[in-house]
Amino acid sequence: TRIDGRFGYEGGILVAAPVYGLLEKLMHPPSWEARFQTMIVVTHVMFMSSRDLLEALVLRFCAPHPKALVRRVEGRSETTTSWSADDEREFEVQVARPVRELIVSVVAEWAARRPGDFGQASVTRRMLDEFVGRLCPAVGLSSGSKTVLEALGKAASIAHARPSPGSAPVPRLVGGPMSLVTVDATEVARQL
Fold this sequence. Notes:
By secondary structure, this protein is mainly alpha-helical. Helix content is 53%, strand content 11%. The protein has seven helices and five strands. It has helices at residues 19-26, 34-43, 50-61, 85-113, 123-138, 142-160, 185-191; strands at 2-4, 7-10, 13-16, 69-73, 76-80. The strands form two sheets. Strands 1-2-3 form a three-stranded antiparallel sheet, with no helix packed on it. A two-stranded antiparallel sheet has the order 4-5.
């Protein structure tokens, strides 16, 4: 295992990092990896709550422009605190928009893979509704809102669909009327 700053790597693959390090990697377009995004979306509940993850994503999505700007001038770095209109546009195009699009991608995959994290009466659902209803359109990402809602809708409809013919069998409860207390868990597991 090679330790590089706060990250641990094995054979070039990230194997250890603090939670903030994982989030930093997840929300940084130059280091983005589809497999890593999927892994975080699917396993985040092992190291943080869904609410905390969504809150971190929304905070990064809404991050203000930095107060200082570092420019390369004649081969040296120059820091300035004054932003021109061109600087604003350049920052928006090269930094802010790619980060926001990446975050929309993360939230869409999350909604598709774990729709239960966004139950109708949950805090995360209210936060998600705010994200897609107000925040995405405010920065010109209305299509991102639609992508997230479509992913959530498809996943929810699949989760609530009735089993199709030929799908996995539902365990039979033999021996007459039973309650949850009288069901033998070993028998149910055996049938599955």
